[in-house]
Design goal:
The structure is a homodimer of 324-residue chains. By secondary structure, the first copy, chain A, is α/β, with parallel strands linked by helices. Helix content of chain A is 35%, strand content 26%. In chain A, the strands form 3 sheets. Chain A has a 7-stranded parallel β-sheet with strand order 3-2-1-4-5-6-14, with helices on both faces. A 4-stranded mixed β-sheet of chain A has the order 8-9-10-11. Chain A has a 3-stranded antiparallel β-sheet with strand order 7-12-13, with helices on both faces. Strand 13 of chain A pairs antiparallel with strand 13 (262-271) of chain B, so a sheet runs across the interface.
């Protein structure tokens, strides 16, 4: 059994707990939280400890799965965890990946540990599709569409507006754009042409709804470049209809092998639960990291560095006998 | 530049030639044929040699791409080529892969060479999807649908019937089955429920068409277990409407992360040219085999053993900076 520990118990931490239950070769030693452990009720039978007690588990955990956020938590803490443990995380600030990689790779090599960064579905499974598709169809163009699904970052941005009590934002790919891409037309698409943004907002009593709507629609980077729809609803409606964490998307590459012949490659995900699926991907990569560390590897890996067989729950060297 | 040689000049050999043209880091040293070299007119500017002269190229070719058939050619010849060269092939007799692997792995290790077997889209890209999907969603079921596309084996089987001058057979996935799978119903499907077979047959003058149709529909393994449609057409119609080598298919995995939440993963291909795309995959894996052999690896690999970054046309250790 591979022994994992889970650091952080938000939506993703819960997803990893549930995924660990589904993996027959994984045993969860415990959930490590910054909160008072007694206040955390895990969805599974796993024990809950204070993150301050983690050092006591050195040598007792094969891989730590880090479920903190990418904005501040992971950059501040992973370097510390990877001194004592093999780690897997879902760091997803694309622009900062090289810097994050370099820093952790150095620490891991110095300490003889191994980490996998930026694991999940994007970055993660979608990145693998982009690399594979681009390599086997070099004369082409690829597109990633996200959604329909909740964007946590955009929802948070709305919640920070004065007069907003709660909000959920869906990123929705535009059918017309998808159709053009799937027809192999390799269109140049602006951000506005690829996705639209649909917001459900609960306003404070007496708030100026027109002002809130205007503020959302004109918010730079987040909304100004998109077709944005704002719907005001009640807190009850929000809870009832918008509490599912569904998501998904598609990576499409369209290209030519000759002037006459086009090829279209697609990888798509339709997820009822974004954090549960992301958790499931993290657990599979924790298995790979454990195996590679047993083989003596140290440093930091991404999804591009790991042979697929190490993700396989069975004997990695036998996978080709049934799955090839 | 990575120097490749192409052995065999049928549809697949032509596909590899065209793919090598698209790869900026690949140089084709030559096409090696069993025919008289002067009778072969390659689609590209590459030189054509007799396969008997191959030994003269030892040390001058980084990777040989073997484009022979899986029924008799590859099992008979790969063991010989891999003594002197790194190789990549598209061996696709699923049941015999373990035996083929073991034999070649031994020879390659003895001779310090490296080979990749069973590369293409199925086995190949589809196998990678099956392994990845199964690993990240263990509580689920996967399905592979092929087509719409020409099955060479089934077309050949029809051509062997008395009174048949020429024939093309399309494998067509059934929409009703696809819909059930995509709805996450995880149905148990018989072969008849998954695919149908559509045949276009040119009969000899005066042949008994009713008898031919009956023979096709009752042919065990090939057609008896399927809904089969037989259309008689003229040789001209066959040439005009059925000479494209389009193909494709989809790998779908549907499963649960919890009782309430299902996740659906799909990888699909829509190919104007089956051999050109297969050739393009072979070239990407030739690049990986070259790089791994430079790293000192020997023996035989499948698509499951090779980190994705080695397929990347650019610097493999930089791929994560732009594609993750």
């Amino acid at each position: 059994m591979i022994k994992i520990g889970i650091v952080g118990y938000g939506n993703l931490g819960r997803g990893v707990c549930l995924a660990a239950e589904k993996a027959k070769d994984i045993e969860c030693v415990g959930v490590f939280t910054r909160r008072t452990p007694e206040t955390v009720n895990p969805v599974t039978r796993y024990k809950v400890y204070s993150v301050n007690d983690l050092s006591k588990f050195k040598g007792k955990i094969d891989v730590l799965i880090l479920c903190g956020g990418s904005a501040t938590d992971l950059p501040a803490t992973t370097g510390n965890y990877i001194k004592d443990f093999n780690t897997v995380d879902s760091f997803d600030t694309h622009a900062k990946i090289p810097e994050y990689f370099a820093k952790l790779d150095k620490i891991a090599k110095e300490n003889g540990t191994l980490g996998a960064i930026s694991i999940g579905w994007d970055p993660g499974v979608f990145s693998m599709a982009r690399l594979l598709f681009g390599s086997v169809l070099p004369d082409g163009k690829d597109y990633t569409f996200w959604g329909k699904g909740v964007s946590q970052g955009h929802s948070d941005a709305i919640r920070r507006i004065e007069g907003v009590k709660n909000a959920i934002q869906y990123t929705v790919p535009k059918e017309t754009a998808l159709e053009k891409v799937r027809a192999g037309l390799n269109p140049e698409l602006t951000v506005r042409e690829k996705h639209e943004r649909v917001c459900y907002v609960v306003a404070e009593d007496g708030a100026d709804k027109a002002k809130i709507e205007k503020e959302i629609k004109e918010m730079p980077n987040y909304f100004a470049d998109y077709d944005t729809t704002v719907n005001f609803i009640s807190e009850e409606e929000l809870k009832e209809n918008h509490s599912k964490l569904a998501h998904g998307g598609v990576v499409i590459r369209s290209g030519k092998t000759t002037e006459e012949n086009s090829e279209l490659l697609q990888l798509s995900l339709k997820l009822d639960s974004n954090p549960e699926f992301t958790g499931s991907v993290l657990v599979a990569f924790a298995r790979a990291i454990y195996r590679l560390s047993v083989n003596g590897e140290t440093g930091v890996k991404t999804a591009f560095d790991i042979p697929l067989k190490y993700l396989y729950p069975g004997n990695p060297d036998e996978a080709f006998k049934s799955l090839l």
